[in-house]
Design a protein that fits this description.
2 copies of one chain form a homodimer.
Chain A lengths: L8 H16 L3 H17 L1 H17 L4 H7 L3 H16 L7 E6 L5 E8 L2 E6 L4 H12 L3 E5 L5 H15 L9 E3 L5 H8 L7 E5 L2 H10 L12 E5 L5 H13 L8 E7 H17 L3 E4 L1 H6 L4 E2 L2 H5 L6 E7 L2 H11 L4 E5 L3 H10 L4 E6 L16 E3 L7 E3 L5 E12 L2
Parallel strand pairs in A: 3-4, 3-6, 4-5, 7-8, 7-12, 8-11, 9-10, 9-11, 12-13
Antiparallel strand pairs in A: 1-2, 2-16, 14-15
Helix pairs in contact in A: 2-5, 2-7, 3-7, 5-6
């Protein structure tokens, strides 16, 4: 294990802040050229990254991590090429800064512009996957921001090496390499220092499990863009089409159970359940979905186990599902309000009025009528790139593309106006 | 003194959350009618409010508050009529909710809409002025939000009575009166409860002095819209026009010294200072401006006192000014970065290139070239109404009108799309 606890987090953040100023003066072309250079450097140095990754993998195996964990940590030549390709794609996206959202002239002649500008310094706190190191760096630089990266300890050698490669790449560009800072420490204190560094860090973005996100939200005085936890619901209304309902249930639950837009709880109207019990049971069995149910479900579905309070609140991230029965829409929306995480919620119904009411009453980033919750994703929605999925309401909600990494300035040009 | 410490803050926040749901289903017309009814009710019941205000004033005098404090607290028939008129103006503004920002169709036929919706429940924590009670209520209701009000203890009887009047008005409308909650307690604990009530309150907006805002930012886990502290700078460049520079200095410093967009520090290029020393001295004397200066200023300006570290950092909110001399733009922007609060910063220069560089390098909500910082104000910029001036970068920056009280939802309409 590498533990370099003597990193000076504040010093790194200060360097990032200074680099952000230089970065904010670069043109779109200069930023794009830098991203392309970075992509080439990563392609050229893939072997260096693979060697570092092998050390992380060895540590991971020694610590007895499971196959899924090791898989997420594993880099290959192809995966590294995808990192580089991702940077080239970001270079092709529109620059989100320097856009004049609106401009007007006051009666006294003062010219007012509202213009988009970089946020400044982004603090990224994330867990195992090393791809975040490259993806987040690319999005930050494209939007004119410096970035301070604090990755998980299990990938620390890979991440540190990737950032060293990035630095070698940046040395050939107009972006100062200090714009990308990596906190090379496994010390929790290093992370906590980022929480309160308001002077040097403009926003913290945590990406990872619920406990990581909670720790950041509860302890940070730096503004946070909260991402990711998705306790998503599917409400099957009395007037739901059975084919759509079952196909969407299976897709949302089993396509990728471990991601945040996967389904965790189905809420089923009792009339629909009575009419479609056998089809539901057969579908669940065919797809190996393990049911945690309320008392009605326990009586109807063979093999179901009783759902506890925890079942309604947790993300399974597996092929488990909680199922609750209700007698009307209000019970359904109330359950979502009580247990939902404001991420993605779906209703299956042929009644447009019921669908509209559901969409008005339920408070979430993404609301679906007769479609799978799996579409809550920057890629699927055509955003080009995604820094995360916001479950908060301020600044950015739902999938966040490059514009989420900008703020605005009002620029006023006058010739002596006073009030 | 009224101290009703047994208020149940959580219960009130829950009621607000419930009322927010009803409110979110109302039409623009229903909300506007309610605001007009509220305005009439306030006009009709002005005497009730005046009687309550007299009690606050008596308490204030007994506690030895100064004339300025008493003035801010004092209501008159005219001021109350202005409250009502303010509500009528808000009724005339465009509804910021229900606006489809963008919509598109995915290749699979899934229809995607990004639409503006109310935030939900706004927690407003504010100091003496009772007008905030009415202004914030009007803006919250117009944007479809419920509001929980926690005013300062010195105005508690006035505020409580105003909310009672608002409740009597709302009873005649489609807006549930529970949408406006007043925490009738002078207990600090009641305020602190609001800080962490994430389940029931969607955003906290503190309005008042620096210490109030700091307490909210440092202790709240509910997202905060940070408002108001303005340590504003005026940089007089070597190439500044002397008439513009002096007129703007006087206006920004003396027009209303106690507001957040007033000038606190002038940064003067030494070449300009050498050339225009006499005019500057004469202007400062004529307008009774008290100078705290660096060593250069101390030698030049009669009556100046030495500026300490505190002078550079604090808002005077009086006719005091700190003056620093510099030899170039970088020194000026560095000083602003070290001591500014990212509110409003101005440069006076006839050199457009210098002005543009200043505007790029300085990180603040509003940047002025040859104009007074006093224009950072929703009213002055034509926003129609203002809930506060944001000094943060996320969600809203600068003067915040009705759109700052909204968030977005993605609505997806499909016919069975899966991924």
């Amino acid at each position: 294990m590498v533990t370099t606890n003597k990193v000076n987090v504040e010093e790194q953040a200060k360097l990032a802040k200074k680099a952000a100023k230089t970065l904010s003066l670069l043109t779109t072309e200069e930023k794009n050229e830098a991203l392309l250079t970075l992509a080439d450097t990563i392609d050229n140095e893939y072997e260096t990254i693979l060697i570092a990754n092998e050390k992380d993998l060895e540590n991971g195996r020694q610590q007895g991590h499971d196959a899924a964990f090791i898989d997420r940590l594993t880099l290959t030549k192809e995966r590294i090429e995808e990192f580089a390709q991702g940077l080239r794609q970001v270079a092709e996206l529109d620059d989100p800064t320097g856009i004049i959202n609106s401009d007007w002239v006051l009666d006294n002649g003062l010219k007012v512009q509202q213009i988009t500008v970089p946020l400044g310094v982004i603090g990224m706190i994330y867990e195992a996957r090393p791809n975040v190191t490259v993806d987040a760096t690319g999005l930050a630089l494209k939007s004119g921001n410096a970035i301070v990266l604090k990755g998980g300890s299990s990938a620390i050698i890979s991440n540190k090496t990737i950032v060293e490669v990035i630095h070698r790449g940046l040395e050939q560009t107009k972006i100062p390499k200090e714009a990308v800072q990596f906190i090379a420490s496994t010390d929790r204190e290093a992370t906590q220092q980022l929480f309160t560094m308001k002077e040097h860090i403009d926003v913290l973005i945590p990406r990872g499990g619920g406990s990581l996100i909670k720790a950041v939200v509860n302890n940070a005085t730096v503004p946070v863009l909260e991402t990711g936890v998705g306790n998503c619901h599917l409400y099957i209304d009395a007037e739901a089409d059975v084919k759509k309902a079952l196909a969407i249930l299976v897709n949302a639950k089993t396509d990728r159970p471990a991601v945040c837009n996967a389904l965790e709880t189905a809420i089923i109207h009792q009339d629909w359940l009575s009419a479609n019990k056998d089809a539901l049971i057969e579908t669940l069995r065919a797809h190996d979905i393990h049911v945690h149910g309320d008392s009605t479900i326990m009586k109807l579905i063979p093999g179901a186990v009783p759902a506890s309070e925890d079942d309604w609140a947790n993300e399974y991230l597996s092929k488990d599902i909680a199922i609750k029965t209700v007698t009307n829409l209000t019970e359904a929306t109330q359950h979502i309000e009580d247990y939902g995480t404001k991420h993605s919620e779906a209703i299956i119904t042929e009644n447009q009025e019921t669908a509209d009411k559901f969409m008005k009453l339920v408070d979430a980033a993404a609301l679906y009528h007769n479609a799978s919750t799996r579409f809550t994703d920057g890629g699927a929605l055509g955003f080009g790139a995604e820094i995360g999925i916001s479950t908060q309401k301020l600044h950015a909600r739902g999938p966040m593309g490059l514009p989420a990494l900008t703020t605005i300035k009002y620029l006023m040009h006058g010739d002596g106006q006073i009030r």
